[in-house]
């Protein structure tokens, strides 16, 4: 089954085409990430799929329903965490999430439980304007999930979170997905996408450049393997003499062997008893991202 069906979606602002003829499908129960540099069109794409922004061309169906004009039948079935959070002023965290919950007919006990799940139980009586950026982000996510939606949209959900909070949120999102919910998120964290997502769409200049599993994207890059041998274990000359080594470098962590035949090179290192302290680095999703979108600075 398809949770999201997007066909030829386009959005323009004067001379700028923010989203350019995007077509994609997301299956029910999938966890999909959308990656891209600043200004790639990620947020605009999500807002059109969510029914928050009218497309100039193309169609969107979510859970079998058209999203535009605004479809009130979809609102109880989806959860949305926006990039910029807006809360009712002068309410505490508890009052805030209970208010959101009441809009969906969800009881206070369930709302309070979500505060605990995102680690804000001790901040329940704190006014939202007194929360830190990371705490406000977690409250925003809890508000998006409080009514147990079938489909969840999260726009950079772990921005402003410390490493511990990020990891805890990963566990929460994984558990939600494991229960059969569909999750779509945008993120700038490659490790986050690689760990959480079933498939990843890399977007730039309003277009989807690649859409596949993280592993398939990395395989398609055909990046060389870098094998680092501990300092003193091997000289650069000895490393260069190993069959299959294409390039040798030296760094603070030891001698670096660049190869496209890692099995043969590791076998040679094992035969020479040079495996102690060896590290192996293959291509990563970040390598894919940079290969597709370039390295220039984006404001």
From TrEMBL:
Keywords: Antibiotic resistance, ATP-binding, Nucleotide-binding, Transport. It comes from the Bacteria. It comes from Nocardioides ginsengisoli. PROSITE patterns: ABC_TRANSPORTER_1, ABC_TRANSPORTER_2. It is found in: Cell membrane. Residues 4-230 form the ABC transporter domain. Belongs to the ABC transporter superfamily. This is ABC transporter ATP-binding protein. It is a peripheral membrane protein. Its main location: membrane. Gene3D superfamilies: P-loop containing nucleotide triphosphate hydrolases. The lineage of its organism: Bacteria, Bacillati, Actinomycetota, Actinomycetes, Propionibacteriales. SUPFAM superfamilies: P-loop containing nucleoside triphosphate hydrolases.
